[in-house]
Amino acid sequence: MVRALDRKVLRDLRAHAGQAVAIAVLLACAVTTLVGSVATARALERSQARYYAEHRFAHVFAAARRAPEGIAARIAALPGVAEVETRVASSATVERPAGGPPASARILSLPPGGARVNVPYLRAGSGLDPDRTDQVLVSEGFALANQLRPGDRLGVVVNGKRQVLRIAGVALSPEFVYAIRPGDLFPDDRAYGILWTSRAGLAAAADLEGAFDEVAVLLAPGAREADVIAGIDRLLAPYGGLGAHGRDRNVSHRFLSDELAQLRAMAALVPAIFLGVAAFVVSVVLSRLVTTQRQQIGALEALGYGARAIALHYAKLVSIIALAGGALGAIGGIALGRAFARSYADFYRLPVLAFEGEAGVVVVAVLVALAAALAGSLGAVRRAVRIAPAEAMRPEPPASYRPTLLERAGLFRPLSPAARMIARDVARRPIRALLSAAGLACAVAILVVAWFAADAMDLILEQQLVVAQRQDLTVTFTDAVAPAGALELRSLPGVRAVEGFRAVPVTLRRGHRSYRTALTGVDPGADLTRLVTADGRVVPLPPAGLVLSAKLGELLHAAPGDRVEIEVLEGRRRTGPLTVALLVDDLLGVQATLSRRALADFLGEGDLLSGAQLSVDPAALDVVQARLRERPRVAGTTARAASVAAFRSLVAGFILAYMAALGALGAVIAAGVVYNAARVTWAERARELATLRVLGFTRAEIWRVLAGEIGVHAALGIPAGCALGLGFVGWTAARASTDLYRIPAEISAATFVRAALLILAATAAVLLAATRWVRRADLLDVLKSKE
Amino acid sequence: MTTTAQAVAGRAPVFAARGLEKVYRVGEIAVPALRGVDLDLYEGELVVLLGPSGSGKSTLLNVLGGLDVPTAGTVTWRDHDLANPDERLLTRYRRDHVGFVFQLYNLVPSLTARENVALAAEIAEHPLDPADALARVGLAARVDHFPSQLSGGEQQRVAIARAIVKRPDVLLCDEPTGALDVQTGRLVLSVLERVNRELGTTTVIITHNAAIAAMADRVISMRDGRIVREERNAHRAPPEALAW
Ligand SMILES: Nc1ncnc2c1ncn2[C@@H]1O[C@H](COP(=O)(O)OP(=O)(O)OP(=O)(O)O)[C@@H](O)[C@H]1O
Ligand SMILES: [Mg+2]
Fold first, then answer.
1. What are the structural domain ranges in chain B?
2. Which of A299, A491, B17, B212 is 20 to 30 Å from the Cα of A322, by its Cα?
3. Quick check: helix, strand or coil at residue A56?
4. Cα distance from A310 to chain B (closest Cα, Å)?
5. Is A767:A710 a contact under the CB 8 Å cutoff?
6. CATH T-level fold of A495-616
């Protein structure tokens, strides 16, 4: 049997169904985003950990110029080392079977007995035959982008020697979850890949027989990484050791970990906003309910119901709503988490996806939602319990009002009585108006953050590609050539300008920090490629000294005036110091640039070019590319348009999904807040508004009083939301600074305008719905009832 | 029914109701509130409407005031058809011609006395000055007070000022003294009487209190949704002289 008081819970629920649904939806959003993002982050962390463990991702990596194989045993003997695997690694040029400019690759040896560290995951085909030296495994991204399949033949140039290798299989590796060519701005699967081949074959090609140039180490449990790194550095020092490092400096690992860290940060932020807004809405709705039910509460107390029974009664009401919202959110959250985790796993080509139901997270999230709702109801319930029966049975005296401060200053004189009603109500309950405005502000801020993602991508591309790198084509030569060899390209029809550059792969090192990238020498007066700061300023290249991306400076702990040790990774492998002249806070990738003459001096070579930047008449682009390919010394050409398209397609889908998700959340918050504010205002003003109708006010005039109050909330909330959005963006930008990209905390005016308009539209939609309440209201009913 | 009409011959009827019926539907049950009311009200008349609880007084008043429409029958005020349920026309009618006073004062708590009155003045064509309207109800000194700072009788007088500020043609009062003590009630009634006299407003006052009938030009009694009796007072007693 349902007890009478419980029946009242159900009746109250039905009477306030709209508001109950709005609260439940807000809580559902909180639980959905909380469960969804935590489940995604946890699934990815677990997947990452499982992938690393199952495929034995090394803990420590080291490179040397040429270390005898015997050193491996000495590394293995270091305390804390569980497993050692040496390999030969080299850069390679890969001829694309489909034709076109050749791609570049990193080619790694696998031991004859099969890898025990950094074990590739075979996606298709088979592993390498230990008896053959003409087989190769190809990384999946590269294989897909170039339509390579097991059985295909691949022309590969290593150390100047060309061989034709047969693709045995397609593979992934925990070491290259994220594969980007050192010195490149964005990953481009078409132009860069990872290859694995037999140790014997690669060692012969790279002249490293009986020796290795890279070693990977698995640590024993409890081992101290720093000690092992120091030990390896000591052992490799005589052999041109380039410094051992842990996973933290593996680009792929760092990028994946940064992404997970961002995901975790978002996992806290958005649900917190929803919970806050939901708690606020609960508090408003419930305190309104308690006010209307004052006399009922008094009567219940007179009947002998105690404070606990009454508190419990309202807590039940709130709990039903919260649990309904929580259940809905849990279902949505699991679905969202599964979808998100899947798309992340696809994006990163994670071979294992360890998504779990996350019952624990669901329970916690629902409890948090319940707690937020109950916290929101606390004030109202306390008031309900404190009502003295005798007092409660009397109708409430008219609420007391005072002229607002602004009016007393004479500012409101021209306001109509209707406007004064609004102004005084806002002044009488400023906290409520402020909280409602705060809810709207959160919605605006979420939208600003969502649209900012697109702004940021546009800004990065604009800055990098329109201001900084203005070439249409980049040509690289097979060997460094004299300037005449490059300038001669100017004679091709359609070529408008040619600027030569010299680029060498290097490791930059300062103290125990190091970074592998390309060192680029350009002419100080170069017009096609320029140094550009985050705010779009073009910085002239100093005649001497090194210019580093600010991010690279940060990674190396190098400031202007500091010396950085340079190790060239090709040719005569020169080493020596260069002084940092300038840091440039650019947005994409990390660059090390200096004047071409200074680079030539450093390399101890004459005036040589590795390639050239070309400005080309767009109509002639294809023809010029085809003519360039015919030239024997041209190793490859990269069209800027193609690489921009590759980058856009890489990021655009993600950003769109992100924008759509956050946009929808923002709209839900706005609608929820406005709906409840309007509902409560309507309920509180029902009597006044009916009186106005009796006086002859039209429905439209009544609606305007209602809309005016909500308008005040919006007028306060929207500018505050823009400011809050700016804050969120700064916070996000600070956290999203990687060596792949930095996000400028700059928001376009259009983003603010769009966010404000969407919130206004959501507000307008709710207020439009409110015209129905006004139309349906029975004025006689209201006037007869004694409140 | 036409005896009274003849008695006030020379004056034109402003309200004319014929065969007025009103049935409320509560779920399956039909509650008849008016069962065939014929009624004429004349310009400048002060009418008191008497009757037991549930006899249909408020329903009739609401129909005359354009707050509600009858289920059957015709009712007009001059050339306004009050049986037409077009909400826009009814709003227009209320706005331009009718002032209401209720037992519950229904003031807007966030507005001062003057502002409550201004609320009505602002949407009227030829309103009185709100301060003037308040002076007429004897509240000149309280114009800037909020409802919470006024007594019940004062609040009711503000409500009357708000009703008369637009110079309505009709003033409809539903138990205006119901929540007041005798003294205060008399004060409120004398305000209504003076407005009727000075402004020539057709006035209908609902009351349970037969003693009040003495101040009227005409007394109409209702029972079970019908008019059962009409009396015309030879002369109107001043409200100050009423005793109950
Ligand atoms: N909205 C409504 N729904 C259903 N029945 C109603 C409604 N309003 C009035 N009634 C019924 O119509 C009848 C007449 O009501 P009305 O309010 O006109 O009486 P009254 O004479 O004003 O009574 P009182 O002196 O108590 O105010 C009553 O039986 C009442 O119950
Ligand atoms: Mg009544």
1. 43-67+85-241
2. A299
3. coil
4. 30
5. yes
6. Barwin-like endoglucanases (2.40.40)
* Residues by chain with Cβ below 5 Å of ion ligand 2: B 58
pLDDT at A566 exceeding the cut of 60: yes
B6 Cα to chain A: minimum distance (Å): 33
Residue in A610, A580, A633 with CA at minimum distance from that of residue A503:
A610
* Interface predicted TM-score (ipTM) of this complex, two decimals: 0.81
Q: Using CA atoms, how far apart are residues A85 and A116, in angstroms rounded to an integer? A: 7
pLDDT at B3: 40
Dist. CA A263–CA A670, nearest whole Å: 24
State in Å: Cα B53 to ligand 2 middle.
7
pLDDT value for B221: 96
Ligand 1 pocket member B22 (CB < 6 A): no
Kindly determine whether residue B146 and residue A780, on different chains, have CB atoms separated by under 8 Å.
no
A332: exposed, middle or buried (Cβ count in 10 Å: 0-12, 13-18, 19+): middle
Residue nearest atom 22 in ligand 1 by C-alpha distance: B58
* Contact (CB, 8 A) for A475 and A488: no
* A145, pLDDT greater than 50: yes
Residue of B nearest to A779 (CA): B67
DSSP annotation of A295 reads H
| Chain A residues closer than 8 Å to B106 by CB | 687-688, 690-691, 694, 783
Candidates A420, A687, A699; nearest CB to B111: A420
Residue nearest to atom 13 of ligand 1 (CA): B33
| Predicted confidence (pLDDT) per residue in B41-87, tens digit | 999 999 999 999 999 999 999 999 998 899 999 999 999 999 998 88
Residue A592 forms beta bridges with which residues? A519, A548
Q: What's the pLDDT tens digit per position in A324-366? A: 999 999 999 899 888 888 888 888 888 888 888 788 888 988 9
Which whole-number Å values give the CA distances from A22 to A437, A675, A712, B128, in the listed order? 17, 8, 21, 46
Element (H, E) at B32: strand B29-42
Quick one: closest CA in A to B113, which residue? A417
Using the predicted structure, report yes or no on whether residue B4 has a pLDDT greater than 50.
no
* Inter-residue contact A221 to A555 (CB < 8 Å): no
The span from the CA of A277 to the CA of A436, in Å, is 8
Q: Is B31's C-beta closer than 6 angstroms to any atom of ligand 1? A: yes
Going by the DSSP 8-state scheme, the letter that residue A625 receives in this structure is: H
Domain ranges for chain A: 1-58+254-396, 59-253, 427-468+640-787, 495-616
* CATH class held by domain B43-67+85-241: alpha beta
In single-letter form, the type of residue at position A431 comes to: I
Q: Find the helix or strand (DSSP H, E) in which A539 lies.
A: strand A538-539
Whether residue A257 has pLDDT greater than 90: no
